[in-house]
Design brief:
Layout (H helix, E strand, L loop, with lengths): L1 H8 L6 E7 L5 H14 L4 E8 L5 H10 L2 E6 H11 L7 H20 L6
Parallel strand pairs: 1-2, 2-3
Helix pairs in contact: 2-3, 4-5
Length: 120
């Protein structure tokens, strides 16, 4: 948290966090703890979450997201895999393919937050 606070202090107009994470079993606790800490330390800042979910997601994780995040954008891993395979015609999508697709989606979603003016 000290490193995060140090980074925030270097900005003139810090407005909030974009939190991109996976809600798979082994990562759920880390994500939840970080979200709780961010919301308690910076309650007046917006937290936007891009959450990659699997077929299994713990109710505790959903509860934490609803309680500590202002905006949640879910992306389901299997659906992304199927888009890569069937729509983008990648015979066997790898994690690299899936991550590139997620990054492209996320870049398009946040474009208007990062640049002034109308984006077409």
């Amino acid at each position: 948290m000290d490193k995060i606070q140090h980074e925030i202090e270097s900005y003139d107009k810090f407005q909030g966090f974009i939190f991109s994470h996976s809600a798979y079993k082994e990562y759920e606790n880390l994500s939840s703890k970080l979200l709780i800490n961010l919301k308690s330390e910076y309650s007046n800042k917006i937290i936007l979450s891009n959450t990659i979910i699997g077929s299994y997601i713990d109710n505790h994780t959903i509860s934490d997201l609803l309680n500590y995040v202002d905006i949640i954008i879910y992306m389901e891993y299997k659906s992304i895999f199927n888009i890569c395979k069937h729509q983008l015609e990648i015979e066997t999508p790898t994690d690299v393919n899936i991550n590139k697709f997620i990054a492209l989606c996320w870049s398009n979603i946040t474009c208007s937050m990062r640049f002034d003016g109308c984006v077409y």
